[in-house]
Amino acid sequence: MTPTLVRQHLPHAGPAPRVDPCARARDWAEIQERMLVPLYEAVHERLEVGPGTRLLGLGCGSGLALLTAASRGAAVTGVDTRVPERLALARERLLPESRGTRARTDPRIVDGTPEDAAAAPGEPGYNLVTAFEPIGCATGDAERLGELLAAATPLAGRGTPVVLAGWGPPERCATSSVLRVATRLADPLRGARSWRPALRDDLEEIAQRAGLRPDGSGRVACPFGYADVNNAVRGLLSTGLFDPAITATGQEQVDKEVTEALHPHVRQDGTVWMPNVFRYLIARTPQ
């Protein structure tokens, strides 16, 4: 009898992969972050972000959403604690030496918690809070967002809009099939950041637990487009969602399987195109 060959993904036995955090942050800022610009612009247009806006951006990362708000004249403050290399890029983009914004006051980038971004005594509180990092992306992201909202909403005035964002249904997000590679390859014991599918009422449940009142929502097309497959792999890996898989199986295996998963989305000219839908919820602080 001919023996059956069984393909296995053995745990990666070598040392943990060494990732250049600065290169990863650059890939995020230069390749991946721009995919969400349609979401930022749709929200800013709907809420009429402008010179009267005092915006607090939670999980601001490298600051592109803040930059688009500042270009409309908003006074912006970004807060984050996770990736210092991304915050360094946000400072490059936004602080006084940056060009091309019409903000009334200098932007603030805070490496800390929302409490660290509280307005000075005598200054008005924030009248818009945004959390643009989409949930429905990693296990535990909803809980983390709830903690941020609990800390941030006391810094805002009554009835202030708070914007939450999430992935749309997996059947409307072509990137879902690629992100499943992260879950399949990851060691379950290390999979806290593994991708998970979005649930229909994720955003409403988070808002309600935070004491916020839902007050409208919308959906925005945010296709992921890349110059080539290598560009797509770099962009997707910059999200950090594949890190548990890299730890479990190694960089080479993850690169190989992500490349294979991208094949259905490669066009004749070699570019990669994946249509996606993202959803946002506008909720309000208590009156």
UniProtKB/TrEMBL annotation:
Xref: InterPro entries: SAM-dependent_MTases_sf (IPR029063)
Domain of life, source organism: Bacteria
Protein name: Methyltransferase type 11
